[in-house]
Amino acid sequence: MEKESVESVALSDDDDNIIAEDVCQLNSTTTKGKKTLKSKVWNFFDILPLGADQKLKSQCKKCGVQYMASSKYGTSNMRRHIKVCKRNDTWDIGQMMISRDTNSLSLGSIQFDSNKFHELVMACIVMHDLPFQFVEWAGIRAIHQYLYPDVDTLTRNTAKADVLKAYQREKLKIKAMFEEVSVRVSLTSDLWSSCISDGYMCLTAHFIDKEWRLQKRILNFCFMPPPHTGVALSEKIFDLLCGWKIEGKLFSLTLDNASSNDVSVEALGSQLQLKGLLPCNGVFFHLRCCCHILNLVVQDGLKHIDRAIEKIRESVKYVKGSHSQVRKQKFLDCVKLVSVGVKKGLHQDILTRWNSTYLMLDSALLYRRAFEHLALSDSNYKSCPSAEEWDKVEKVWRFLQVFYDATLVFSGTKYPTANLFFPSISQCYLTLKMALEGTDEYLRFMASMMWVKFQKYWADFSVILAIACILDPRYKMTFVELCYKKAHGEDSLEILLVRNKLYSLFDEYKSKSSYPTTTSISSRANKATSHLESMEVESKLDLFKEFGDITSEEFSYAHKSQLELYLDEPKMSRNVNFDVLTFWKSHQYRYPELAAMARDVLSIPVSTVVSEAAFSVGGRVLDQYRSSLKPENVEAIICTRDWLYGDKELMNITQDIMQMSLNEETGEQTIVS
User: Residues 421, 423, 427, 429: what is their CA dihedral angle, to the nearest 10 degrees?
Assistant: First the structure.
């Protein structure tokens, strides 16, 4: 029977009489034929044959519910059932759901929520980088109509309004969160050029929340009109900070090494310091992106490639060349013959990406014996390195491995805390120094090319990274002193600088702390001792003098600051599974002032990896088909995506960072293809 809506059923008052006549006619055994049922109730119910109880009953055509159908019962029950029937207006089982609220299986109807529908469509657009006109596609509308015939017809303007509404809602939540937390916020900022050369600025906040979880939020992804001078950049960043009302909660700002960024951070730092808003007079405010620095350093070292590396490149190209499958098969036969127990493929490097050169050497060394056997079996293969050249390649590979591993730490899938960086960057520093003092001429040449640029930036970030490392109970001051000793010799001025900056920073947190300090405890100890001394003078008894000495020794422990107490404790083992934030969360009441400092220092980002991720999203949002999208809509999409789904989609973008082409004058970035 065709579907008929409940609203189309119009049951008049005369229907009861008609139905009663129909039922009586059915009960009569003397009539010659059945009278036609005229009531519209029977469009929804069927009359059942008489059962053993000889009572006339009706059954709902949709759900099977039965009612008495004789005239004395009337039709009110059936009419009420038509309005609440769970199977009414249901075309297929796809619109039904199983209810387990009462631990029993039963069918229940889905209640369509228009607001929820709008929210899901908005999330789909933001999550999957879909255009606003996605809701107007004929196929999407057909799906919506099939699932719910009375669904709202969405337009691109409605979808845009829903995204902007979600953006404003989440923005208010972020502002409220900043007002609740008392921690300082570290920033990263970067510039990006779209496919039509429009400039955009990405400003990201990094902080540790009250639950001691490391957080990051893209605050703005806004249009940045030219000129991109240092003064213009500083004014733009300051306006954005004032909009979020966090200009008084800043700790550091991480930028790449573009010359315009140096001017902007100096101007911004001076403006903030005039109001006394930065800790330690802004000494730690500017930090350079370690990923970009390492990238530039290694690229300088690989500008002049040794002949042995060129042979590796030619060998890989010979095997992976698409012109002859015979070469590939010969190489595979050699791999089987020498029993190379690896399944890793060969990597062909790209001249503009140093990490691809490292990966090429890494894969080629695994197949060294296969290449050597191929040189014996294939007379056309002329580029096999000699034994000495293979040894040189292995030395270069080991040399680059330190920098490759450090880059993975800086831009890995797990969002790292600042304590992880000093050990990696120190290893790079010591590797360069050992290569300079070594006997291998090519490594010494590479190291000399890299040393100048590394030295240029080392002093800029080594101090604050060392302080972050000291706040890791596995390292503390001992590891930092060891690294500086190897780098600069015994009793170096650099370690004294680190120690002075560490204590200066802690003293500032201690002076602003609302917790009872150890100084007040010490003063109470001194008062107690003075009181005992006065008693000693009055009584002239040696007993009280001895008691006073014991009291002084007892309270001498209180004269140590929280930082000194922390440093005096034994280091934790490096072999255990350790989370530095969990450590400080459990010790925040024992060392309240030091924990407050650790919370701000450990959240410092030393790379602009989050901005690179935002630029990847921006490239998909502002593609060649949507290049005219308004900047406010671009910002709403990218920021809402980060606020709602950022923690779930933070991915490893090491490849993007290593292939980043940086304009050192403007600071704008593009991906090298």
Answer: 60
